[in-house]
């Protein structure tokens, strides 16, 4: 039955629908509302997933099996496909230096490596390949140190949005890097800022406009607000814009930077068995944690990191058991050989 016939059937059903109530006007209003809701639901179009999305979902489910050869496999992939694979790897806790270096593309304008094992080495290699990055998310990347922040600011001259912090260690690193964002003068003999040329201000975050740091402490916030007047920390969306410029999506709070590239892919692609990382309270710093809590978090992080490896080992054991059963079972072996012979005969014909 097509949509037109469905709408006609629903219309006839609603014509026969009767409400027993003293208020006739209320009945009519309710009847009209229900009818419009049903028709809207029937006419609503659901777009099926594309073939590319289905293929990416299949690749993502078995991503750990091709990671070793990912550099050779992805060399001819388009930039958006590489970004989608990187997003799936990040969600599956498989994103590390080797993976992101294999997938980095010079045309990327956004980079989301949050909650990953990417270190200063991987970030530096990506900066060398991607010169046009406008937004970068390195929040909860505990392996990125002050050296990585410095290299990011110095080599990424188009960087406008930086998302950082999010975990006790990342917050600590970001606090130590607050001075990297300050503009520094090559010529300190000038009498006023107005007389300085832009080339005389160097070694700072020249193009940085937005910093998203959810757990920023008061001291760091005060330093950035007073000493980096061109940078806005944790901007709030406003219909009238901020500083005559609307806040971009990349700088909005509670968003995931790489969501648009995987919006058409089935979320079950990155579902991994194991513990789910428990979010740490924003007000709880590393120094305030008890020893037991630190051990618990370390165990959870280690278990989450090893979950993909356990899943891969389980699949390998299953395949090995099936292969051994095929070799030991006479009937199964005969069926396999018959299938091979049948394929050979068909190919000859």
UniProtKB/TrEMBL annotation:
The protein's name: RNI-like superfamily protein
Native source species: Carya illinoinensis (Pecan)
